[in-house]
């Protein structure tokens, strides 16, 4: 597990994410996937409640200002010196839709879950999911290549390198779709120091 390159990167991700959920249908087959997790622990250095800006300690003694939205309801509970824990999970899944007749497309879902009433400390979870659907237009079993039509742009030829996936290529049909699903989950917890 590698830490994020910078704390700023983590909070840039936080500002981009706002909850998503993806559920695979019965005719969907997971082809592959990867996931990574990162943790960042920092402290609150300053709070400007009027401007809704919280400044936290960054790498190498830097300071990182974070602009909070109106959704940050428990700002009054945050104090200078509080510890902030940020846990980021990023995943990419490739899913084959076995039905024929799908079309290329793209969708995005996002949302926020705030801390519960039992936890007065500010925090919560943010989710973002992007799904890119490409249509299979050609399958070449000899060269282990699949031609995909993405939502925008020209067709792309993908070489299937994995021997296990190569064995399954004869089950593919033109007109099926392949989804690339990118999911980011950001969980922020805070605790009072002292």
TrEMBL record:
Name the source's superkingdom: Bacteria
Question: Span of the secretion signal?
Answer: 1-26
Q: Which UniProt keywords apply?
A: Signal
What this protein is called in its record is DUF5666 domain-containing protein
């Amino acid at each position: 597990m590698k830490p994020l390159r910078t704390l700023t990167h983590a909070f840039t991700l936080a500002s981009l994410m706002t909850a998503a959920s993806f559920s695979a249908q019965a005719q969907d087959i997971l082809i592959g996937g990867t996931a990574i997790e990162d943790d960042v622990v920092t402290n609150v250095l300053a709070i400007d409640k009027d401007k809704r800006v919280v400044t936290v300690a960054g790498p190498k003694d830097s300071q990182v200002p974070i602009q909070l939205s109106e959704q940050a309801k428990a700002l009054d509970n945050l104090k200078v010196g509080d510890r902030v824990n940020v846990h980021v999970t990023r995943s990419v899944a490739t899913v084959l839709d076995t039905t024929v007749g799908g079309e290329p497309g793209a969708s995005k879902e996002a949302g926020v879950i705030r801390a519960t009433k039992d936890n007065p400390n500010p925090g919560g979870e943010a989710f973002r999911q992007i799904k890119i659907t490409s249509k299979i237009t050609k399958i070449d079993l000899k060269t282990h290549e699949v031609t995909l039509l993405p939502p925008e742009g020209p067709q792309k030829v993908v070489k299937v390198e994995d021997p296990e996936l190569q064995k399954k290529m004869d089950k593919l049909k033109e007109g099926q779709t392949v989804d690339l699903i990118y999911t980011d989950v950001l969980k922020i917890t805070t605790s009072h120091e002292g």
